[in-house]
# Entry
Amino acid sequence: MKRIKLLIILAKKGAVGEKVKVTLRELADELGISPQSVLRLLEDMEAEGFIEKSVEGKKTHVEISPKGLAFLEELCESISSVLYNGVVIGEVISGIGEGAYYVKQYSHLIEEYLGFKPYPGTLNVLVIFPRTVFDALYNVRPVILPGFVKDGRTFGDVKAYRVRIGDVEGAIVIPSRTIHPPKIAEIVAPICLREKFNLRDGSRITIKVVKS
# Structure
């Protein structure tokens, strides 16, 4: 764990592609160990090929080696595959009251492209995990609800991602011109999800992305 943490600290300090000056005391404070332990750790990691180190007088310069970078990249991919696996955890919040209007306008497209007649309203969820709704959807292909013009007003494309909440299938919808920040997931479903699962503001909810 100390090796991983030290590699991350060095990467944050810019030791990628060039050597950066470090001090044992500074690294010791960030790692919570003694400067002597930092020195041994650096020497071990140099011997293992994870870093390249040079010392000029009292100055130590360190760069993460290609092997160290490959290790970090593989670690990042492994963590992402475990964490960002299409599960969204969040808390139910109240919307601004426009959901019903837009669901009504797009109802025919939702029924045509997603296969269900939507309940006239959306469930808004504040995303707790992962960091944003896009992190959970990054490797999922959306269903595009095409834009249209109605009564002289233009309605843009909407990206719809199929999801499942309990035994109910619905979709996270992301309009091309959304006012919601990426921490908010807006969900349409064939029934009222608040009533079905007895949800209120603050209720914790788990959303599973359905990958086609």
User: Anything to note?
Assistant: The chain is about 35% helix and 30% strand.
